[in-house]
Amino acid sequence: MTSATGTDSAPPDAADQPRAVDPPDQPSYLADGHSLRSWLGTRDHKRIAILYAIAITLFFFIGGMAAALIRFELATPQGDLVTAETYNKLFTAHGVIMVWLFLIPSIPQVLGNFLVPLMIGARDLAFPRLNLASWYTYIAGGIFTLGALLLGGVDTGWTFYTPFSSMFSNSNVVMALLGILILGFSSIMSGLNIIVTVHTMRAPGMSWFRMPLFIWANYATSIILVLATPVLAMTLLLVGIERVFQVGIFDPALGGDPLLFQHLFWFYSHPAVYIMVLPAMGVASEIIPCFARRPVFGYRFMTYAILGIAVIGFLVWGHHMFVSGQSVYAGMVFSLLSFLVAIPSAIKVFNWTATLYKGSITFHAPMLYALGFVGLFTIGGLTGLFLAALALDVHLSDTYFVVAHFHYIMVGGSVMAYLGGIHFWWPKITGRMYSEAWGRVAALLIFFGFNLTFFPQYLLGYGGMPRRYHSYPPEFQVLNVLSSAGASLLAVGYLLPLIYLTWSLFKGKRAAADPWRATGLEWQTDSPPPTHNFAEQPIVTRGPYAYTPTP
Ligand code: HEM
Ligand SMILES: [Cu+2]
């Protein structure tokens, strides 16, 4: 391996003193064709990552608009802005878009697609055409799903509980189910691609335990994607069949079993929450060592924890059904198993913290996001334990407490990490530096706005405010107003990166190959990388995270 090793004791200082940039000897992937065709027909994983980035950003802001309307409605106790029915359609649109069109593809399809080959020293993913097919499938599913949500709407919630969804709802359920079904195929294609790539395309010397944790995280996520998504596809298909052909599957009036739906749905959807958070953990594991100038504490344990989460995550789905009427004994087992899944998560939090210990920490924008991720994920995880306690969940189930719990993990955790990763790898992806000052302002604003939005929701839920209603008793108004105010700040916080990152594309300083003095393979090629990633095949001679602290 070349250079990079010599400089790793210096703190990252890219924003303050950019290093000289050597002229690249090969044209970058961005310069390799400028026509629309060269983008829409590309097989380059880096370009496909950008196609994904554009699409998910669009969906993120559409989903965000639904959230804004929800928070406007909840600023007053009366249901005065929209009707109850429209409100149902709004939270369904918000949930469906954010889960399937944004969170599931976000880190794996954008950062994973771009970085997995670079980080393991490969020229591309194993199946470049499948990669492009996955993007087109995603777009087709996205158009279908969005069409269902906007043309008439869907009022079932993102969970599509039967028999309401299969027999009683008068909304666009079948079209939405088909859209999500198509999106599932995209997930499976990409999952397979990553699995085969990690198995077969690693550079010489890159043994399993020399792989960066981001690769481990994406690998484990891909296994979940491939194993769990077919269950969702089948379940949605069954709902559609019951709805269209009146075959009794879930509706008790036709001889079906509504709990069967909940079992099948959560058998996918609990593992799916780890699809959303494992890649985020991978991002944090790259950023924290770099800005603490310390190797990850307990690398092996981190890999075992990732695998542990992926496996145990398949065994806890029944914790979503404590009040559904499932047997108490099943509930006890699911409660115990849910506590178990917290152990590997806690190991990770402990190890990130221990990585910081005695490090030379600098608070650049990516690090602010990564630290925000750790804190908010921890709060989300701990409140998950409240919910996993059988008796407590009887009180908290279907309240705002649950809403706060999963937003702390999925928004405080995954979205923070996604933004952290975008900031960390932005110089590599685009070849440009963004304004560090604005980066820090946005990270702090998002952190503050996030907490103001969602912390009051824990209190509301604990006080008994149920989720999914468009009006509420007046005593809940103060906390709801705080939450809506926080949401406004958060919206500004999310718009800021859109502005200064776009600006940097045209006016930002040119980025060096390794502006943060990071040690991963992806930093050893140009910024932005040439089409085939590396001028010569990298040979790996050491583990990841060869950082040493500055005295
Ligand atoms: C320490 C690990 C975790 C535990 C013990 C845990 C526990 C729980 C429990 C018991 C519920 C059901 C509450 C109810 O409906 O009454 C729940 C809901 C939920 N959790 Fe977690 N959770 C954990 C981690 C996560 C993670 C990592 C995510 C996402 C990335 C997540 C996302 C969700 C979502 C989306 C829901 C609500 C789904 C809905 O009803 O719409 N959880 N959690
Ligand atoms: Cu769960």
TrEMBL record:
<dbReference type="GO" id="GO:0016491">
    <property type="term" value="F:oxidoreductase activity"/>
</dbReference>
<feature type="transmembrane region" description="Helical">
    <location>
        <begin position="479"/>
        <end position="501"/>
    </location>
</feature>
<dbReference type="InterPro" id="IPR036927">
    <property type="entry name" value="Cyt_c_oxase-like_su1_sf"/>
</dbReference>
<dbReference type="Pfam" id="PF00115">
    <property type="entry name" value="COX1"/>
</dbReference>
<keyword id="KW-0249">Electron transport</keyword>
<keyword id="KW-0472">Membrane</keyword>
<keyword id="KW-0560">Oxidoreductase</keyword>
<dbReference type="GO" id="GO:0005886">
    <property type="term" value="C:plasma membrane"/>
</dbReference>
<dbReference type="InterPro" id="IPR000883">
    <property type="entry name" value="Cyt_C_Oxase_1"/>
</dbReference>
<feature type="domain" description="Cytochrome oxidase subunit I profile">
    <location>
        <begin position="39"/>
        <end position="541"/>
    </location>
</feature>
<dbReference type="GO" id="GO:0020037">
    <property type="term" value="F:heme binding"/>
</dbReference>
<keyword id="KW-1278">Translocase</keyword>
<feature type="transmembrane region" description="Helical">
    <location>
        <begin position="174"/>
        <end position="196"/>
    </location>
</feature>
<comment type="pathway">
    <text>Energy metabolism; oxidative phosphorylation.</text>
</comment>
<feature type="region of interest" description="Disordered">
    <location>
        <begin position="1"/>
        <end position="27"/>
    </location>
</feature>
<dbReference type="GO" id="GO:0015990">
    <property type="term" value="P:electron transport coupled proton transport"/>
</dbReference>
<keyword id="KW-0813">Transport</keyword>
<dbReference type="GO" id="GO:0004129">
    <property type="term" value="F:cytochrome-c oxidase activity"/>
</dbReference>
<comment type="similarity">
    <text>Belongs to the heme-copper respiratory oxidase family.</text>
</comment>
<keyword id="KW-1133">Transmembrane helix</keyword>
<keyword id="KW-0349">Heme</keyword>
<feature type="transmembrane region" description="Helical">
    <location>
        <begin position="328"/>
        <end position="347"/>
    </location>
</feature>
<keyword id="KW-0408">Iron</keyword>
<dbReference type="InterPro" id="IPR014241">
    <property type="entry name" value="Cyt_c_oxidase_su1_bac"/>
</dbReference>
<feature type="transmembrane region" description="Helical">
    <location>
        <begin position="272"/>
        <end position="292"/>
    </location>
</feature>
<feature type="transmembrane region" description="Helical">
    <location>
        <begin position="135"/>
        <end position="154"/>
    </location>
</feature>
<comment type="function">
    <text>Cytochrome c oxidase is the component of the respiratory chain that catalyzes the reduction of oxygen to water. Subunits 1-3 form the functional core of the enzyme complex. CO I is the catalytic subunit of the enzyme. Electrons originating in cytochrome c are transferred via the copper A center of subunit 2 and heme A of subunit 1 to the bimetallic center formed by heme A3 and copper B.</text>
</comment>
<feature type="transmembrane region" description="Helical">
    <location>
        <begin position="438"/>
        <end position="459"/>
    </location>
</feature>
<keyword id="KW-0186">Copper</keyword>
<feature type="transmembrane region" description="Helical">
    <location>
        <begin position="368"/>
        <end position="392"/>
    </location>
</feature>
<keyword id="KW-0812">Transmembrane</keyword>
<feature type="transmembrane region" description="Helical">
    <location>
        <begin position="216"/>
        <end position="241"/>
    </location>
</feature>
<feature type="transmembrane region" description="Helical">
    <location>
        <begin position="404"/>
        <end position="426"/>
    </location>
</feature>
<dbReference type="InterPro" id="IPR023615">
    <property type="entry name" value="Cyt_c_Oxase_su1_BS"/>
</dbReference>
<feature type="transmembrane region" description="Helical">
    <location>
        <begin position="304"/>
        <end position="322"/>
    </location>
</feature>
<keyword id="KW-0479">Metal-binding</keyword>
<keyword id="KW-1003">Cell membrane</keyword>
<keyword id="KW-0679">Respiratory chain</keyword>
<dbReference type="GO" id="GO:0046872">
    <property type="term" value="F:metal ion binding"/>
</dbReference>
<dbReference type="GO" id="GO:0006119">
    <property type="term" value="P:oxidative phosphorylation"/>
</dbReference>
<feature type="transmembrane region" description="Helical">
    <location>
        <begin position="90"/>
        <end position="115"/>
    </location>
</feature>
<feature type="transmembrane region" description="Helical">
    <location>
        <begin position="49"/>
        <end position="70"/>
    </location>
</feature>
